Amino acid sequence: MDIFDRIKTQKGELGQYQSVAHGYFTFPKLEGEIAPRMKFRGNEVLTWSLNNYLGLANHPEVRKADAEGAEKWGLAYPMGARMMSGHTSLHEELEQKLAKFEGKEDAYLLNFGYQGMVSILDSLLTRNDVVVYDSGAHACIIDGLRMHIGKRFVFPHNNIDKLRLQLQHATKVAEQTKGGILLITEGVFGMAGDLGKLKEIADLKKEFNFRFMIDDAHGFGTMGATGAGTGEHFGVQDKIDIYFATFAKSMAGIGGFVASNETVVDYLRYSMRSQVYAKSLPMPMVFGALKRLELLQTHPEIREHLWEIVRAIQSGLKAEGFDLGNTQSPVTPVFLDGGIPEATNLSFDLRENYKVFCSIVLYPVVPKGVIMLRIIPTAAHSLEDVEYTIKAFKAIKENLKAEKYSKEILAKVR
Hints:
Elements: H1 3-9, H2 18-21, E1 30-31, E2 37-40, E3 43-47, H3 60-73, H4 89-101, E4 106-110, H5 113-124, E5 130-134, H6 139-146, E6 152-155, H7 160-177, E7 181-186, H8 198-203, E8 211-215, H9 230-234, E9 242-246, E10 256-260, H10 262-269, H11 273-276, H12 283-298, H13 300-319, E11 332-337, H14 340-352, E12 356-357, E13 359-361, E14 370-375, H15 383-401, H16 404-407
Parallel strand pairs: 3-12, 5-6, 5-7, 7-8, 8-9
Antiparallel strand pairs: 1-2, 2-3, 4-10, 9-10, 11-14, 13-14
Helix pairs in contact: 3-12, 4-12, 5-6, 13-15, 14-15
């Protein structure tokens, strides 16, 4: 069969919904300056779907730094990959500051977090090595492991007893292959908002010989006494061998970094194909990231306000009987019962009539019969925003209970 003929009928797991969802439930356009209130299809909506945790996207000092970086260097400089002609002192400065912040010997910048994780795993692992990872790991980890031709073991999400069992299996295989063991989990799981059991995993180092890596995309900047992340939150940052995070969440930017000891970072610097063969992170983004990191470190009141908003919306929703799962982070999932018809109408009602925009998640991310509304609180939100949203959620919950969303077709998005 011709490839083009096949994709006409086999549109993929998400693509099958394109004809009815595109432009509204998928690929929606939020317009205007990044803020709690933006325009959606011509209407102002209170948005809870942006990973702008610290509200830095439109911070005046950040906007000034971004503009200054673009004016001074343009978007093309430096031209080329880091190894060839794309290396600068500011790239090095940002790496050194990130390494110090995370309590590691060295760090290396990544053009994109997703691409970076895939490339880290591809570079780090050989066919003899064994990987043990959490079943709730992000897609970038899963895709990176698809490139690993050695053995891998998955343990049920945050199940330490099962993890111990898988480490026993991994140890036996590693002894046969003469390879090493890499254990991967996340600091904050981005959908459910719960935390990886980093302390319990670190304690397993007393029983097993493995290297410990975490993806802390949602923990960097939000968790810990100084915002250094989930390792700091649990007091085990020194037990984490490879620390990975992105700039796309708390830093409201583009790129990411990996931090570890000097030997490992030097190896990755010369081995990661996604960095060796790709253009360097443009200077305005590096210059802007330096300002973002400075604000993150010197203005703890920003993070404190974020947590004020987090506590307010999570406690308020719980008081109204909403199920938020086991979130221990700013990520706020709201679980409701229903299928695609209910989810479609509920989301449409929430956006069109209550003017509240948040992401909606269905099977296979959550079990069949479950609707998850995912709220991302930020330091840019206000307590008034929280109060209004709780009232709106209470109203849609009552509509759902009254079967309004299963009886009526509300969504007419075309």
